[in-house]
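Predict fold of Maleylpyruvate isomerase family mycothiol-dependent enzyme; 205 aa.
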Amino acid sequence: MDLATEIAAERQELAAMLDDLPIAMWDGPTLCAGWRVREVAAHMSMGFRYPLPRMVFELVKARGGINRMTDRCARKDAATLSTAELVNALRDNAHHPWQPPVGGAAAALGHDVIHGLDITVALGIDRRIPEDRLRLLLSNVTARTLKFFRADLDDVQLRADDLDWSFGTGTPLVGAAQDLLLVAYGRRLPPGHLHGEARDRYVVA
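Predicted 3D structure, encoded as tokens:
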């Protein structure tokens, strides 16, 4: 797999999806607690729009708290940038080489895929992640992934019903592979996506 090509394709597809959203949906909630579509879109493009010196400056302002920094910047940018500017920031930077501090290109792809799903799953948009991209991200799910994203999967086995993939041991949590990927990244999903005895722990109340 050519990761740079897949990242570019994911960003272009997400930009097209956002471009087609009715304006009211931009204020809809996402799977990222406290963020609307606007904040998620702003966050997704932050790495393209902020040069390193500004990133460092914002981190210092947040007293070294990366989550505080990204939350404040996402809210500020969502309030000042138009929907067209947010879409264009994603589309125009499809080939941007940005990567998270850890994880390389695969983590960059994961960042885009997960935040795209944060939007589409919450809004009820049936967007299916291409299987090659999905399998790559599933192969990178580890205990470290769960710890970083605070996903509590003690005594739970993720078991996909559309791909030959499972992770962990214990009480089965069954669903589409891309929905289980969200669970591994610490998300809770709307009702109807997950099945099995462990389901209630991972469904939005």
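The first helix runs from residue 3 to 19.
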